[in-house]
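Practice problem 4.
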């Protein structure tokens, strides 16, 4: 009798354990289903393909133009554009396949990175290929401002070797900064929903983590401000010059046309940079001040819908990093592909400003000849 009662107790316990295990598996499945509604592998795949196509086309166009251009001004500008496209393309090729692999592994990072070394590599790539495009955009804004506002100084002092040295210096300094967590200053942490690694914004116990995360955000914001400031100076100078050359002559009309095209281009560049990067950088500073980090989201329960607490901040941080990554896709289109004639117009503008500065005492016909000659030279070069 006792044996039969013991067997029934064991059987009941076994059934109870089986029921609990089934409930756990069902809950895990439902949670993973809810997560999949919030995050989808379609995002990284789409962004990788579009980014690769755009930046590859930009590199091919820059390479072809660089071989055909003998003007130093044109070569410096092409080097900056080519470096930006190469940086964006490298960042996408190094990070997107990892993200897609994690999605295929059911959002379990540990399955593809048991040691955690891949997370550190991912964090280095995110930091380096995040800051580099911002610094390159600032460099191009400075170069553009000097070429437009100080054409004589630019023509005499700005050489291709200086541009190459500046680009190499930017890359080396950003790489050294990104490697600081590997040296023990700062920390890279797996971020929600477990598909990417980035700077930990909530850990104040790790040596130098607050300094590292704050420096990243401050440098990013500083680069944005430099770009906006330099482009604003260029726009103001062009508009002022356009107003000081009134009239219905062909020279005035051509100057006004070049000015408007360049101003529209610069406004587009500023809007893309600010819209793509401001949310992430500002949110990082906010999370640093409040000691919060998106990797803590993985310890919370998954909500019933994507828009409910406590995942609102986590979803916003994920959206912010995607917007920053979107900048790598838009860069080649904003700077080059959507307007292949940007280079020709930029060089015409710089040539026109230079001629206005050197021949201000001459008749407008002299400037018109210079403008027409610049346009003809560029058209001939592009047809070669």
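Answer key:
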């Amino acid at each position: 009798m006792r044996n039969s009662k013991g067997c029934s107790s064991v059987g009941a316990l076994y059934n109870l354990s089986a029921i609990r295990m089934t409930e756990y598996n069902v809950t895990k499945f439902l949670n993973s289903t809810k997560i999949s509604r919030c995050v989808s592998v379609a995002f990284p795949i789409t962004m990788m393909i579009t980014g690769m196509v755009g930046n590859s086309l930009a590199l091919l166009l820059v390479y072809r133009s660089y071989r055909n251009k003998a003007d130093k001004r044109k070569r410096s500008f092409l080097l900056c554009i080519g470096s930006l496209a190469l940086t964006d393309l490298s960042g996408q090729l190094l990070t997107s396949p990892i993200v897609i692999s994690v999605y295929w592994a059911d959002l379990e990072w540990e399955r593809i990175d048991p040691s955690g070394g891949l997370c550190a590599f991912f964090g280095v790539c995110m930091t380096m290929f995040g800051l580099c495009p911002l610094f390159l955009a600032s460099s191009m804004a400075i170069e553009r401002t000097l070429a437009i506002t100080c054409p004589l100084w630019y023509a005499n002092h700005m050489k291709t070797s200086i541009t190459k040295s500046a680009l190499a210096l930017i890359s080396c300094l950003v790489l050294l900064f990104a490697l600081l967590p590997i040296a023990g200053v700062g920390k890279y942490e797996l971020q929600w929903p477990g598909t990417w690694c980035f700077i930990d914004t909530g850990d104040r116990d790790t040596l130098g983590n607050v300094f590292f995360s704050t420096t990243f955000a401050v440098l990013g914001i500083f680069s944005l401000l430099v770009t906006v400031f330099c482009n604003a100076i260029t726009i103001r100078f062009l508009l002022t010059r356009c107003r000081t050359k009134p009239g219905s002559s062909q020279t005035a009309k051509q100057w006004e046309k070049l000015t408007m095209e360049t101003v529209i281009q610069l406004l587009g560049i500023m809007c893309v940079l600010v819209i793509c990067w401001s949310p992430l950088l500002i949110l990082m500073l906010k999370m640093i001040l409040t000691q919060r980090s998106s990797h803590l989201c993985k310890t919370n329960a998954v909500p019933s819908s994507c828009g409910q607490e406590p995942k609102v901040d986590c979803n916003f941080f994920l959206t912010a990093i995607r917007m920053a990554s979107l900048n790598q896709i838009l860069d080649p289109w904003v700077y080059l592909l959507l307007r292949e004639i940007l280079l020709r117009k930029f060089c015409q503008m710089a040539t026109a400003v230079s001629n206005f500065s050197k021949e201000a005492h001459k008749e407008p016909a002299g400037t018109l000849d210079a403008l027409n000659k610049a346009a003809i030279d560029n058209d001939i070069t592009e047809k070669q």
